[in-house]
From TrEMBL:
GO terms for molecular function: DNA binding; transposase activity. One of its GO terms (biological process) is DNA transposition. This is Transposase IS116/IS110/IS902 family protein. Residues 38-116 form the Transposase IS116/IS110/IS902 C-terminal domain. Signal peptide: none annotated. InterPro entries: Transpos_IS110, Transposase_20.
Length: 174
C-alpha cells in the first residue's frame, strides 16, 4: 500500500505541474492579444480569469449585437415572465456555464477589492438581495461595462463605472 500511495502522489505531482504549465501557457497567449490591456484593466480580471472571460466571449466584435445579448449569453441578466396578472423575475438557467463561473469569481473579487464594486454589492444587499443575486447583479453590470470598453478600446475607469461610490475608501480584507 505504501508503494501504491507513493505512485498516486507522483501522479498527482505530475498533474499539478501540467496544470501549472497550462496556466502559464494560457496567460502568455492571452498577453499577446490586442485587448489584453482592456480586459485586465477591470478589477478581478487577471491573466487567467481575463483569459477565460475573453475565450468565452471571443474577439469577434459583431458576435453580440449589444451588451444585453452578451449578458443573456453569460446568464447574468434576469428573465422576466409575465402571464395575465402575474409577473416573475428569475435568473437564467440556460447560459454559458464557464462564463458564469468565472463571472462569479470576477464579481466576488470586484466586490471585495474596489470601492465601486463593494458599494454596488452593498447597495444590492441592502435592497434585500441575497449574496448570489447581488454578485450576479454586479457581474451583469461589469459585463456591460466590459462590452462597452471592448467596443471602443477604452480601459476601465472606476470613477465613470461607479460614480456614486468613487469617493468611498478602499475596502480592506478582514
Amino acid at each position: 500500500m505504501a508503494a501504491q500511495a507513493l505512485r498516486l502522489l507522483a501522479t498527482r505531482d505530475t498533474e499539478c505541474a501540467s496544470v501549472e504549465q497550462l496556466g502559464q501557457a494560457a496567460a502568455e497567449a492571452f498577453r499577446q492579444r490586442p485587448d489584453y490591456a482592456v480586459v485586465t484593466s477591470f478589477p478581478g480580471l487577471g491573466d487567467l480569469t481575463g483569459a477565460r472571460v475573453f475565450a468565452e466571449i471571443g474577439d469577434d466584435r459583431v458576435r453580440f449585437a449589444d451588451a444585453r445579448s452578451l449578458k443573456a449569453f453569460a446568464g447574468s441578466s434576469p428573465v422576466t415572465k409575465a402571464s395575465g396578472n402575474s409577473e416573475s423575475v428569475t435568473f437564467r438557467r440556460v447560459k454559458n456555464d464557464r462564463l458564469a463561473a468565472v463571472g462569479w469569481i470576477w464579481a466576488f473579487v470586484a466586490s471585495t477589492k474596489t470601492p465601486g464594486g463593494a458599494g454596488h454589492y452593498r447597495r444590492r444587499r441592502d435592497r434585500s438581495d441575497r449574496h448570489a443575486a447581488a454578485l450576479r447583479h454586479l457581474f451583469n453590470r461589469l459585463l456591460g461595462q466590459l462590452y462597452f470598453c471592448l467596443q471602443i478600446g477604452q480601459l476601465f475607469d472606476e470613477e465613470r463605472a461607479f460614480p456614486n461610490f468613487a469617493d468611498q475608501p478602499q475596502p480592506t480584507a478582514a
